[in-house]
Amino acid sequence: MCRLERGFNVFMEAFSQFVGHVDSMIWSMVLVLLCLGVGLYLSIRMKFPQIRFLKEMVHLLGAKEESENGITPFQAFATTVGARVGMGNIAGVASAIYFGGPGSVFWMWIITLIGAASAYTESALGQAYKVKNPDGEYMGGPAYYIEKGLKCKPYAILFAMVAFLGPGFLMPGVQINSLVTVFEEAFSVNKILVGAICCVILGIVVYGSIKRIAKIAEMLAPVMCGIYIVAAVVILGLNITKLPGILGMVVSSAFGKHAVFGGILGSAVSWGVKRGIYSNEAGMGCGAIVSAAAECSHPAKQGLIQSFSIYVDTLFIGTATALIILLTGTFDVCDGAGNLLLDQTGGIEAGIKWTQYALMNTYGTWSGKALAIIIVLFVFTSMTGYCYQAEANIRYLTHNSKLAVNICRAVFLAASFFGAIVNADAIWSMGDIGYGLMAWANIIAIALLAPKASAMLEDYEQQKKEGKNPVFDPTKFGIEDETGAWKRK
Q1: What is the DSSP string of 161-218?
Q2: CB-based burial of residue 8 (10 Å sphere; 0-12 exposed, 13-18 middle, 19+ buried)?
Q3: H/E element holding 254?
Q4: Phi and psi dihedrals of 102, rounded to 5?
Q5: Which residues, including other chains, have CB under 8 Å from residue 96's CB and lie 6 or more apart?
Q6: How does 449-462 read in b/e, with b if 16+ C-beta sit within 10 Å?
Q7: Hey, how many other C-beta atoms are within 10 angstroms of the C-beta on 349?
Q8: Cα 453 from Cα 449, distance rounded (Å)
């Protein structure tokens, strides 16, 4: 048994080094600058819709649009928030601070503000090019707008393959790994047992339809976000005198001016962008896949709603985590060589445990258990969103093969359980690879289709000025609606 265990540990060490190397290749500074550059280009081209239409975003969330064939706009919002709000917002923020210093939080805010334009673009395009499948449900996403908008089927197939590989195989383990870690710490239970129970529950849910997933997300997303933000607000109130110093440290670190963290400016930018995108998925195409399942009268509506979901995800939940960690001093920072520049935790592993210990030191040991329950909600909604994204792309690749969909779900559940037995470094690198591949494949496509997305926004604005409830006419934009997805009764 000892020999077997030793062999497994050697294999895992080699595997961890391999995926770490691939991760660093994919997430080079080129991708970081591409994400920032395209987001800024889209913002300028459309005159910063993520700021101009903020009031409209909130209004659209409350608009009643019932749907027989798809999910409602609010359900699409809740589903994408549920999928986005996960370990990237808690463990991911902690790892960004560890590797990039407090300045990484500033760059997470920047990529969120800029990335909201990318979120609008991909979601509006996902809506515009959606199709109605034989079961009467809507489907779409980057694979569809790449094929129909860019007229490049091989590129569309490449994205669909990457979008199955990411959410369907590489990314789920991150969520389960963090969940079993926090449960082990809170309740002293076996990781593998917790992982197995989670996968059984997930299996029951993911074999349902997108409408079932949407109903669950609609109920859980506001609850889990609200509880977590309240906990952060209380910590903020208890440490309010520290806030000016913390904000000063974040800003000075972001521009390399801090005495201790000035030498890791590059890491602050790269880790801030990397974890910001991991957190909110802007520009990756994930939001476009779920947005396409919604039924609304104009693609710009869903685009604006998804822009707002970026704010909820990172500016609210991600910032809540940063405040919990920074205000309580439960963080360390290392340089590029792994040497500690700041050591305050006494060796607590960077990630979910930082938040857990910060809460326990503030509220008592019961809060560690409470966080474990909240994590279940975070992970549950993230995982159901991942499964739908992977499944949508398998449907595209196999022309709605039910066998392929069932195999996809089985692979997804196996990959989820993998997260319970593999070390955190390897699992996070795998998740980064999945997000990075999707970002490379999608960010270029939305940059090329920017004129179309911009024209749709202008059409929406013009109809609003005329006092109309904007209605989309695909023929006006040269989009063929072969399946009747935009036909009104």
Answers
A1: HHHHHIIIIISHHHHHHHHHHHHHHHH---HHHHHHHHHHHHHHHHTS-HHHHHHHHH
A2: exposed
A3: helix 243-254
A4: -55, -25
A5: 104, 105, 108, 271, 272, 274, 275
A6: bbebbbebbebbbe
A7: 15
A8: 7
Per the CB < 8 A criterion, the answer to whether 260 and 343 are in contact is: no
The tokens of 10 are what? 């050697």
The strand ranges marked E within 327-376 are: 333-334, 340-342
- Alpha-carbon distance of 436 to 30, in angstroms, equals 11
Structure tokens at 325: 């960690």
- Contacts for 414 with CB less than 8 Å, ≥ 6 apart: none
Q: CA-CA distance, 480 to 475, in Å (whole number)? A: 7
Residue found by looking up tokens 């199709």 in the block: 131
Pairing of strands 333-334, 340-342: antiparallel
Exposure letters 263-293 (e unless 16+ CB within 10 A, then b):
ebbebbbbbbbbbbbbbbbbbbbbbbbbbbb
Residues 287/321, Cβ–Cβ less than 8 Å? no
**pLDDT per residue of the chain (489 residues) written in tens, 0 to 9:** 567 767 777 777 888 889 889 988 898 888 888 988 999 999 999 999 999 999 999 888 776 665 555 566 666 676 666 666 767 788 889 888 998 889 999 999 998 999 999 999 999 999 999 998 877 788 889 999 999 999 999 999 999 999 999 999 999 988 898 888 888 888 888 889 989 998 888 888 777 655 555 566 556 667 777 888 888 898 989 899 999 999 999 999 988 877 667 667 778 888 888 878 777 778 888 888 888 888 889 999 989 988 988 888 788 888 989 999 999 999 999 887 778 888 888 888 888 889 888 888 888 888 878 888 877 777 877 887 888 889 889 999 998 888 999 999 999 999 999 988 888 888 888 988 998 999 999 999 999 999 999 999 999 999 999 999 899 999 999 999 888 888 865
Rounded Cα distance between 302 and 18, Å, is 39
Global pTM exceeds 0.70: yes
